Amino acid sequence: MSRALLTPGLQSWLQTQAQSLNANADAAQEVLPQLVLAGMHRIAVPQAFGGDGGEAIDAIDAIAQVAEHSVTAAFVLWSHRAFIDYLCLTDNNAARELWLPDLLQGRLAGATGLSNAMKFLSQLEPLQVEARPDGDDGLSVSGKLPWVTNLRPPFVVAAAVQTPLQPAPMVLAIDSRLAGVQRSADLDLLALRASNTAAIDLAGVKVGQEAVLARDGLSFLKRARPMFLSLQCGMSLGLARASLQAAEQVGAARNVLGARIAQARTQLDSLRETIREGLVSGRFVADAPALFRVRLQLAAVVQESVQLELQGSGGRAYLRDHLPDFGRRLQESAFIPVVTPSLTQLQGELNKLAAAAAPAPERALP
Ligand SMILES: Cc1cc2nc3c(=O)[nH]c(=O)nc-3n(C[C@H](O)[C@H](O)[C@H](O)COP(=O)(O)OP(=O)(O)OC[C@H]3O[C@@H](n4cnc5c(N)ncnc54)[C@H](O)[C@@H]3O)c2cc1C
Q1: Given 130, 196, 233, 313, which residue has the most CB atoms within 10 angstroms?
Q2: Does a cis peptide bond (omega within 30 degrees of 0) precede residue 341?
Q3: Mean pLDDT (whole number) for 70-82
């Protein structure tokens, strides 16, 4: 069981703002400061780096508890927290010293533009950012990141880049205050509209060695992946719990739906325990597919939970003035399958592994 991590102030702010955060960008600039004020981003960041310490699962629980109220705010927390995790993992002290204090103070937003890298790893598309040598040990970075969340200026964003210096990609951190970084207007999203989600154009952005989070980007991404994916699982855990709680409050339908509600709850607890155990043992670094399966299963529980909320509520769920939270959660749930790596990408990876492990088909005898 997770302990309560939200401050009363953050809980009440999220409850008041949840609809607006999903439907418009009015409170977009307040989301990160509210999360920072409550210290949500410091949870499970090692004390040696200025965080509050704790178990890795605490950071997932923090995202889950925010997602119980608002997936928009939870995704902002995910972006910021995932970037902080890159700085905890990097061997580059200069990068950590340059950005981590400001991220922990909330003076800077952390963002992760790695969906292109995830698709590159699955050989689905080429990298869209390139870094060319510039001066003695600098780099000039150009390209586009079409989707990035938490771009509340000033921000720093992680991107995987191709470089002629080596065959493998690097992972760089790009600071929005550098010349040549251009943030687009917010994307016209179906939901999660206060998430500061936009595109970034990079035109000959000059960076030094402090920006190199990893020269060997592939091994860095593999090491970062367990926390990156586990933090995402927090969004599903929280959203599903909120829907199940709403489904439980519907009264008469409880007799009909009770067994399914209980089963979904048991699944959530068991999947959270799998995440906790995998992070403690470190097994997800070598066995990434185990975590892929957890994310796929959680996505299915989210769908089931939202359906249970709908079926328990009946027609009232269609009345915005009666049950506005259902409509919001329905839209929020549509985000779960497309978070990088998307369910399609995860399933594609599992299919490839299954095909590689299958015995070669027997040849027909002539
Ligand atoms: C609100 C919002 C915020 C976002 N924020 C960020 C962010 O902060 N950072 C970031 O990096 N990205 C972000 N994204 C981008 C998001 O993560 C991408 O939508 C995600 O990577 C899915 O990629 P895709 O859209 O190409 O769809 P995919 O799910 O990859 O699928 C699209 C197509 O590709 C095909 N396909 C996919 N995988 C395979 C496969 N293995 N084999 C064969 N065919 C395949 C599918 O059939 C499908 O036709 C955000 C998106 C949204 C909606």
Answers
A1: 196
A2: yes
A3: 98
% of the chain exceeding 90 in pLDDT: 83
Residue type present at position 342: S
Cα–Cα distance list, 360 to 167, 355, 356, 357, 363 (Å): 32, 9, 9, 9, 9
CA 135 → CA 138, 162, 181, 207, 209, distances in Å?
A: 6, 18, 19, 10, 12
In a domain, 147, yes or no: yes
**Which protein residue's CA is at the shortest distance from atom 17 of ligand 1?**
340
Q: Under the phi-then-psi rule, with left for phi > 0, alpha for psi from -120 to 50, and beta for the rest, what region is 157?
A: beta
Instruction: Note whether residue 2 is domain-resident.
Output: no
- 3 state DSSP class of 174: strand
Residue ending a domain, among 86, 107, 128, is 107
**Domain range for 84:** 8-107
- Strands 170-175 and 212-214, how do they pair? antiparallel
- pLDDT higher than 70, residue 111: yes
Cα distance between residue 313 and residue 155, in whole Å: 41
Q: Are residues 61 and 190 both part of a single domain? A: no
d(CA 171, ligand 1 centre) in Å: 19
Q: Is the pTM of this model over 0.70?
A: yes
> What residues line ligand 1, using a CB cutoff of 6 Å?
79, 112-115, 122, 124, 147-149, 189, 192, 195, 197, 335, 338-340, 342, 344-345, 348
Task: Give pLDDT, residue 226.
Answer: 95
**What CA–CA distance (Å, rounded) separates 73 from 41?**
12
Q: Are residues 228 and 344 in the same domain?
A: yes
- 38 and 141 belong to one structural domain: no
Name the residue of 70, 129, 147, 221 whose CB sits within 8 Å of the most ligand 1 atoms, as the mutation to test its pocket.
Answer: 147
Contact at 8 Å (CB) between 277 and 314? no
Q: Comparing C-alpha atoms, which of 143, 210, 202 is closest to residue 172?
A: 210
